[in-house]
Amino acid sequence: xxxxxxxxxxxxxxxxxxxxxxxxxxWWKRNVGPLHSKISAxxxxxxxxxxxxxxxxxxxxxxxxxxxDGYAADGKGQAVVLSGYRNADANRExxxxxxxxxxxxxxxxxxxxxxxxxxxxxPTLIGRVGFHDGKQDRFDFxxxxxxxxx
Length: 150
Fold this sequence. Notes:
34% strand; nine-stranded antiparallel β-sheet; disordered N terminus; 2',3'-cyclic nucleotide 3'-phosphodiesterase fold
């Protein structure tokens, strides 16, 4: 690997990035209750640390509608369960971490959801397929190790 390749970014995760995270936050406060202090409500992870082959299969920038089908909450975390776009990791329920308590990682949502979900007919959230490169959300491969995929 030469120095140019070493500086190219890669995805920490790929997923559906919400167009309007504030909508989910306001909906939660109105319909479920107060939020924990560490608000996430940003994206639904589809693939954690994706390979170039997995990235090539993503339809970057595509608009996605996600329906809130349920929620889970406890003293450590709060999350919504979604339908409309399937996770690549079939062992995980499609979800968005809404918020967590201090010192609790958003990954806790997987455990939280496994403990049970309150089913609801919730709102539809709109987002786009993208990825996070460690510094910013991305919807194209420019300046990344995936440039040759396009």
